[in-house]
């Protein structure tokens, strides 16, 4: 995090805030080589939500993390303000010029480690969050329900958003696998962005009976790429569901090429026939290199699971 010191004379207003953004926002993204690929976070201070600020952010295509009303102030910066206030107070400046000088000195003196600690997101829980995306009716809910409950229904009930939890083994202990089943047809952009920001791994579902359903995944993939910066260390599985159907519109070879381009894994499933469903979730967890996760609590693959893998063969992973 780049800490630039600017002293405002008089009262801070929206125009000054906009000027600060103008001078610093892209500059700060330079060193970590973020380019335009970052999400900007600010609280709902009236200066931040003023028309001129909004226009500037919009004109410069800055992605903003929604900050819900009633949310507390941004914590990290508040911690730093407190540090600064205490340090300045201790040196008892006798006039304004001296205060400005001391402020600048003390601001620079805050160790980098303190800043790093302040911006580090507290690990809210031990959850591993998987988000399932895809066009309406491709079978996202069917896959999730088949996996979580072992059931399947022929009737189609569109989803708004549902979350399911399962305990899995993780690094010699346990954690909660949290699966978010999103809506295919009524996605609010803000909700989608939030799911992506919070998600650790993603399942992108299309139906092999609909070429259009692949097209609908493209903007979602782009958004994941934009929000996460890079896809390399993020488990993403492209899934062609309904592979039991004979009326195919999608050529497997083409999807394999797309998976290669997207640097993600690919497999075909059938929620209806319970084909490759458990394998889908296990393979996704296998792609996570930062944790060692297994669907079986004892961390080992059951003989039933091994047999299942043997019969069905490994899914085609890129
Ligand atoms: N033949 C076949 N039909 C399936 C399969 N999976 C789901 N379906 C059917 O496809 C329809 C839609 O399935 P859902 O799971 O509700 O689809 P969804 O992606 O959750 O849809 P939204 O919640 O609207 O985004 C239902 O009628 C399911 O029975 C499958 O593997 N094979
Ligand atoms: Mg659904």
UniProtKB/TrEMBL annotation:
It holds the Pfam family DDE_3. The keyword GTP-binding applies. Keywords: GTP-binding, Nucleotide-binding. The keyword Nucleotide-binding applies. Residues 6-98 form the Tc1-like transposase DDE domain. It comes from the Eukaryota. SMART domains: RAB, RAN, RAS, RHO. This is Tc1-like transposase DDE domain-containing protein. It comes from Ranitomeya imitator (mimic poison frog). The lineage of its organism: Eukaryota, Metazoa, Chordata, Craniata, Vertebrata.
């Amino acid at each position: 995090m780049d800490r630039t010191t600017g002293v405002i004379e008089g009262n801070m207003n929206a125009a000054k805030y906009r000027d600060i953004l103008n001078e610093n926002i892209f500059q700060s993204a330079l060193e970590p080589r973020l380019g335009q690929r970052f999400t900007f976070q600010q609280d709902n201070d009236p200066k931040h939500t003023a028309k001129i600020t909004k226009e500037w952010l919009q004109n410069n295509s800055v992605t903003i993390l929604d900050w819900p009303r009633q949310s507390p102030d941004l914590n990290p910066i508040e911690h730093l303000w407190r540090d600064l206030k205490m340090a300045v107070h201790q040196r008892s400046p006798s006039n304004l010029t001296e205060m400005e000088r001391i402020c600048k000195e003390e601001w620079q003196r805050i160790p980098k480690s303190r800043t790093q600690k302040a911006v580090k997101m507290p690990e809210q829980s031990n959850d591993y969050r998987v988000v399932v995306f895809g066009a309406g009716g491709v079978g996202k809910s069917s896959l999730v329900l088949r996996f979580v409950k072992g059931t399947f229904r022929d009737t189609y009930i569109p989803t708004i958003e549902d979350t399911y939890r399962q305990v899995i083994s993780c690094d010699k202990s346990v954690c909660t696998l949290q699966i978010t089943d999103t809506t295919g047809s009524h996605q609010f952009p803000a909700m989608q962005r939030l799911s992506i920001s919070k998600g650790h791994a993603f399942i992108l579902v299309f139906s092999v009976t609909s070429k259009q359903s692949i097209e609908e995944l493209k903007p979602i993939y782009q958004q994941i790429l934009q929000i996460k910066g890079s896809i390399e260390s993020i488990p993403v599985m492209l899934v062609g569901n309904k592979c039991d159907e004979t009326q195919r519109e999608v050529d497997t070879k083409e999807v394999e090429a797309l998976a290669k381009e997207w640097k993600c894994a690919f497999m075909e499933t059938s929620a209806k026939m319970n084909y490759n469903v458990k394998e889908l979730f296990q393979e996704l967890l296998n792609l996570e290199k930062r944790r060692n996760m297994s669907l079986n609590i004892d961390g080992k693959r059951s003989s039933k699971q091994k047999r299942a893998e043997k019969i069905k063969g490994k899914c085609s992973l890129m």
